[in-house]
Write a structure and sequence with these properties.
With about 350 residues, the protein is α+β, with helices and mostly antiparallel strands. The chain is built from six helices and 21 strands. The relative contact order is 0.18. The protein binds 3-hydroxyproline. 3-hydroxyproline binds next to helix 3 and helix 5.
């Protein structure tokens, strides 16, 4: 056996969405003042080979993410982390935060305090507060207090070639999202409609990218919609709840209820007067798992009214692995196949 690269990983999922965590084998980015600078370093083509090696086949698959724990830049944080998704280094991610916290605590990288461990994590989108309920050495729940979320525009009409006009909301929840009511396109969020939801969701996302160009007021480098959420109307019975399905690029469902998508939706619901500060909202995924979401505070981001949202969910460690690269492997950055990766050509 030979290898020119060895990366040690703890495998984890949060409410069904894989968020593996690198615990060894990758050095920190040199001389960075912020986690966003670290993200910029790692997404350069030479460094980005790591993301391709880990997420592309044969080592990865289309429905997974990998997180990289690094020293924080903000002195208030206990650790920093960066998020690798199939098509981007995401500034922030909810399911990946829950996985990273679960691994940090259950492997002892951050000492676990029972019944509650509280600390902050530094991300490329800013500081995220963590409150983890812990019992018997298990991290039972992870709640994170996200960077502020806000609506960029409501009810925008987008022309989708071959389909027609679609109404979209555009909001920031740690990533930029377009959100569309599935019923407005004659669809229901259920597995039997999966291929159509993913295919049309991707097409609407591309159409939005062509017509609307949101920019984060605090960081002009964080721009353009990269994620898409299908929503169902809120069930306002005993609990406020709804199902959603996030279409992650290049075209597959988030298996979790999507933490940053949920924050974007909370900002939209607050702007529409559907959810107040302090109210719980239960967001369910395509596989029936749930995040408990809440608006903790209202604030502003630049000129935009914003909400500070918290999201609570659960993570489970599922294994450990060491990724290797044989110097003669013909695919040092892996490959993608059209059956599962929505390859354009
Ligand atoms: O929970 C989230 O925010 C996400 N899950 C995978 C894609 C998004 O980053």
């Amino acid at each position: 056996m030979r290898s020119i690269r060895t990366v040690s990983i703890v495998q984890c999922h949060a409410e069904g969405e894989v968020g593996d965590v690198i615990v060894g084998g990758v050095l920190d980015a040199p001389a960075c003042k912020t986690m966003f600078e670290k993200l910029q370093y790692f997404r350069q083509p030479e460094q980005d080979r790591l993301r391709n090696l880990l997420l592309n086949e044969p080592r990865g698959r289309s429905s997974m993410n990998t997180n990289l724990i690094l020293p924080p830049c903000d002195p208030r944080a206990t650790a920093g982390f960066l998020i690798m998704e199939s098509d981007e280094w995401a500034p922030m991610s909810g399911s990946n935060t829950i996985c990273t916290v679960t691994v940090l605590l259950e492997t002892g990288m951050i000492p676990m305090q029972e019944p509650v461990t509280a600390f902050s994590l530094d991300t490329a989108a800013g500081l995220v507060g963590i409150t983890a309920e812990c019992q018997g050495g298990k991290c039972r729940t992870v709640q994170f207090r996200n960077v502020p979320s806000f609506v960029w525009a409501l009810d925008q009409e987008v022309h989708v070639p071959g389909f027609g006009a679609v109404k979209v909301d555009i909001a920031w929840g740690g990533m930029w999202y377009a959100l569309v009511d599935a019923e407005s396109c004659g669809l229901k969020i259920e597995n039997s409609q999966g291929p159509r939801l993913v295919e049309l969701g991707q097409r609407i996302k591309v159409a939005v990218q062509g017509q609307y160009h949101p920019v984060h007021p605090k960081n002009p480098e964080i721009r353009e919609v990269t994620n898409f959420v299908w929503t169902h109307p809120m069930d306002d019975g005993h609990d406020k709840s709804a199902v959603n399905a996030t279409v992650v690029s290049p075209g597959r469902f988030d298996r979790s209820p999507c933490g940053t998508g949920s924050c974007a939706r909370l900002a939209v619901m607050h702007a529409r007067g559907q959810l107040e500060k302090g109210e719980d909202f239960r967001h369910r995924s395509i596989i029936g798992t749930e995040f408990v979401c809440r608006i903790e505070e209202t604030t502003r981001v630049g000129d935009y009214p914003a909400v500070v949202a918290s999201i609570k969910g659960r993570g489970w460690i599922s294994g450990m692995k060491q990724v290797l690269l044989d110097p003669e492997d013909p695919f040092p950055e892996g490959f993608r196949v059209g059956d599962q990766w929505h390859v354009a050509s």
